[in-house]
Specification:
Radius of gyration: 20 Å
Structural class: mainly alpha
CATH architecture: Orthogonal Bundle
CATH topology: ABC transporter involved in vitamin B12 uptake, BtuC
Number of domains: 1
Shape: globular
Strand content: under 5%
Distance between the termini: 53 Å
Largest sheet: 2 strands, antiparallel
Helix content: 55-70%
Number of strands: 4
Oligomer: single chain
Order of helices and strands: HHHHHHEHEEHHHEHHH
CATH class: Mainly Alpha
């Protein structure tokens, strides 16, 4: 097997586009679930409205790219408010069910054939990312980086912007959680009745956490859409939210850098296992009756899932997490 190729692909995955997307989505979820204790299973909806906010604004309405960013952020805030008004007074398990349903409503709405002219239907939209890449300071046709981390001009530009967004969001979360607002939020996670008895508006704090987490999720949608230069509704299904939860729990909930570390480990594991299996099957080390090359994608998720199950058994708090942070008040 070509170990230099395997290790090179794995190293690039550690800072690749998927890592940036899932790190941003998990940072937003960390505000909602890790710090506020909101069992939100609709984070994929916020990623979708961010991506579609840009796509529809630029492709359908013909407006500038920067205005698409504003539309996506405003749409994320409106979605959080509309989602939070009926659900934030529910128990944690009911909140989870309601948010899953809301995420599916968003996905099926943009997938609808009735809205094909506005959202592209099941085919999605493309051709909206050029306004972003027109700002690219890197010379087209050249490669940038060092060692195994060498990328083309377009990918290097989106990675630079993506990692800057990750750094800014981590800094904002760090400052918020060290403030009195953040301490109230963590108090709500531990015992919202006690916080309410102190005269705090628990509902308002939950709504603020949902909005902030949703806006950060929309930033993940921007990177998702621009990085792929297209949007397609089936990319924003419930499995996206479950992967984001996996990333968050892997790195450690209620830890500022937990989502970033979790995203890097998750994608490194997926890429490493996939590359090893592909080359092992191609070299004949794995018999055809056991696994074919078309089954590698499914098997890698099985193996990563098994590893995550073992992690949850022996270290449920994740890499940097605290076991006490995972306690959920489901009243």
């Amino acid at each position: 097997m070509d170990w230099s190729s395997i290790l090179g692909n794995t190293a690039r995955a550690a800072i690749g586009l998927e890592t940036v997307i899932y790190a941003l989505a998990a940072i937003g979820l960390n505000v909602q679930f890790g710090y506020a204790g909101l069992l939100n299973f609709g984070q994929a909806a916020f990623v979708a409205v961010g991506a579609y906010g840009i796509a529809v604004t630029v492709t359908v309405l013909g407006l500038p790219f920067w205005l698409g960013v504003v539309v996506g952020l405003v749409a994320a805030v409106l979605l959080a408010v509309l989602l939070g008004i009926p659900t934030l007074r529910l128990r944690a398990d009911y909140l989870a069910i309601a948010t899953i349903a809301a995420a599916e409503i968003v996905r099926l709405t943009v997938r609808s054939a009735t809205l094909r002219d506005q959202t592209g239907g099941s085919s999605g939209l493309s051709g909206f990312a050029e306004g972003f890449y027109d700002l690219n300071p890197f010379t087209p046709g050249q490669s940038y980086g060092f060692g195994p981390w060498v990328f083309g001009a377009r990918l290097a530009w989106i990675l630079v912007v993506g990692w800057v967004l990750v750094a800014v969001c981590c800094l904002v979360v760090f400052l918020l959680m060290r403030s009195p607002w953040g301490r109230v939020l963590k108090g709500i996670r531990e015992d919202e009745d006690a916080v309410r008895s102190l005269g705090k508006n628990v509902y308002a704090y939950k709504m603020q956490a949902l909005v902030i987490g949703g806006v950060i999720g929309a930033l993940a949608g921007f990177v998702f859409g621009v990085g792929r230069a297209s949007v397609q509704p089936d990319l924003y299904g419930t499995e996206l939210t479950f992967f984001v939860y996996t990333v968050l729990l892997l790195g450690g909930a209620a830890r500022v850098l937990g989502p970033v570390v979790g995203a890097a480990i998750f994608w490194v594991a997926l890429v490493l296992i996939e590359n090893v299996l592909v080359q092992a099957v191609g070299a004949g080390y794995v018999p055809d009756w056991l696994m074919s090359s078309t089954q590698v994608g499914q098997v890698r998720f099985m193996l990563v899932g098994l590893a995550l199950m073992l992690l949850m058994i022996f270290r449920p708090q994740g890499i940097f997490g605290d076991r006490r942070e995972l306690a959920i008040d489901a009243r």
